[in-house]
Amino acid sequence: MTDSKYFTTTKKGExxxxxxxxxxxxxxxxxxxxxxxxxxxxxxxxxxxLFPDVxxxxxxxxxxxxxxxxxxxxxxxxxxxxxxIMAVNTFVxxxxxxxxxxxxxxxxxxxxxxxxxxxEYLCDPLRRCMKDEDxxxxxxxxxxxxxxxxxxxxxxxxxxxxxxxxxxxxDANPMVVAxxxxxxxxxxxQQTVIEVNSQMxxxxxxxxxxxxxxxxxxILDALAGYTPRDERETxxxxxxxxxxxxxxxxxxxxxxxxxxxxxxxxxPADSDxxxxxxxxxxxxxxxxxxxxxxxxxxxxxxxxxxxxxxPDILKQEMKxxxxxxxxxxxxxxxxxxxxxxxxxxxxxSQVLSELKEYATEVDVDFVRKSVRAIGRCAIKxxxxxxxxxxxxxxxxxxxxxxxxxxxxxxxxxxxxxxPNRYESIIxxxxxxxxxxxxxxxxxxxxxxxxxxxxxIDNADELLESFVEGFHDENTQVQLQLLTAVVKLFLKRPxxxxxxxxxxxxxxxxxSDNPDLRDRxxxxxxxxxxxxxxxxxxxxxxxxxxxxETDLLEPSLLEQLVCHIxxxxxxxxxxxxxxxxxxxxxxxxxxxxxTAKFGSSLLDTSSATNASRNGSAPTxxxxxxxxxxDLLSLDxxxxxxxxxxxxxxxxxxxxxxxxxxxxxLGLGGDxxxxxxxxxxxxxxxxxxxxxxxxSAVPAxxxxxxxxxxxxxxxxxxxxxxxxxxxxxxxWLDASKAMGMQxxxxxxxxxxxxxxxxxxxxxxxxxxSEFALQFNKNSFGLIPVEQMDxxxxxxxxxxxxxxxxxxxxxxxxxxxxxxxxxxxxxxx
Length: 826
Known about the structure:
Number of helices: 37
Shape: elongated
Pfam families: Adaptin_N, Alpha_adaptinC2
Number of strands: 8
Subcellular location: Endomembrane system
Strand order of the largest sheet: 2-3-4-7-6
Radius of gyration: 35 Å
InterPro entries: AP_beta, AP_complex_bsu_1_2_4, ARM-like, ARM-type_fold, Clathrin/coatomer_adapt-like_N, Clathrin_a/b/g-adaptin_app_Ig, Clathrin_app_Ig-like_sf, Clathrin_b-adaptin_app_Ig-like
Keywords: Membrane, Protein transport, Transport
Membrane topology: Peripheral membrane protein
């Protein structure tokens, strides 16, 4: 008869009957009753009322019954902590049982019962079990120490369990060593309890070969956090762990690759040993691609990182990344990415032949990516560009809508990479103008028409066809159309005079998009004030696009390589992006000495310098040093009707359009009416008919301006404070371990200040604040440090940080994007 009978009962007074059966003198009846209790507990019934009766059943020699009782105890000990103490004597007794299985079971259960009152009784049995003669008991006790540390770290230190764990690293049994490493690693995640040293490394390497696969993963992860003393030790570690590359388990292989990738960086770049080692890395990664699709995907995501870091490792293995007909779509997409990264002059013919085949597949997303990949090949390998362009033209001739649209997008990039080389194909592109319905494709086609307007006879007609539905277009298309019409006007003024007036009017007067309006006003001002300057700005030589536009940022890549074989390497995001540090404190791999708060924290180039000098960069902030990124701080406050009075007061009666409009001198009482214009041969003069004077006298300039210009002093505020944008939520407490940040930027007495309010929603005080601005469009940097006094729980504090514009300038997108780092200690 099966165990299903325990889950089916229709008796009344079930708890009462179970109580009687649990107190029965017959062992079999008692065992059956415990099984019924566990069955009821499994399906969600509350059987906590039977706690004393079940505990009485612990006094038995039957291992199966003891396991069932322990399972019940683990489930209900939290809700019945006082009654749970009744079981302590039995636990202590079982820890001295002759049967090692019962000893291990007792210490494991005591570790799983997360009740403070029981932990103090756990110490002596746990200490005995860590020195037990049986390895099964010792390895169980090692894991129990980590569980006890999670509940009470101070108790673990005071009772000397860290030293006992350290002793277990020298154990003769490899599984005991592996569990000790796992426990120490888990404890180090919360706070550093032990440092990996050369003596410990030798013990771990000795146990590595005899461990189970998961024990090997634990040991390899521990080795990843060790920095060898010299090149000789580095080579020794590499030689001893490289046989793990041939392991059947993918996790062991990837963990080994992670350690080797880190150690390679510590050796001289011209070392022959590195050459030998990189040859060993390729075969195991290729082998992973013959596994199940899910493992293939994980392997491919990790290979993507490795190829970006060291493309030489897999440069001869292009064929294994060719797509198979039965590959799932997610595997196909990853293989495509890696193919492009490995593409070079000696294999480009093979790659292009493959990509051309892929472009005729039935999966739309895969075809789109294949067409884009052809364009990326043309940009990356110059000698293949002509063949790539020819292939794209052949694909355009298929007239498949989505293929044509993707081809137009990548051809635009090819034009930017190789100007004045392939313009003969423009006519073929123009034939497909009517089929383009996606914003990116339409914007790309408009860019091509505007850029080569002097070579396209009917460029004005083509652009006019887009202008007809200007307000129905996507913002991306509208912006590109505005720029293209201005280019056409600058190149062929006589043809596009009416068209440019119409587009500028649509962009500045009929549009509610601030980006479009601002660009329209900039062009308007340039064209009416200084046509020569307009030509220099709009028709300037474009910078060539880079070969690889989708590479990960170097610092992020370094981070992710240190996490090969984990979720971070699959997501291509640092662990802090998807793990709540409050719930799961993050491990700090490759630690470097933490400098005192000051210039080292505020120097954005320090990490780069550290890596160049050979010191390992900090990959993840420790729990007590949380770095909160305040992204996309929009300094340009939207002007609303409620703010108009504020602007008017500071401007002595004049009104302001705010933002870039004022920056360009468009502010004033109102836009001047069109003056009567004498006939002129200069087509730029007619732009004044739109209400834009060709020059604005100094007397007409407004007293102050809004938006960014107001903050940065272009309008001559003097001592006036002007409009102050209300504070906005920059960082929510749920995303920064309880610290909430609200702030705004103001200008007072000719100085820019950042005003922030920090609220402490955590359970402990926060202090030692430090602030860093990343490079930004305005060169904005803080010139004074924050007040260091602590903020107690549930209290707020206001800070005013005076800023200066003497810092390094780096244009950001959008222009007003500012990244701020706020560092503090808990």
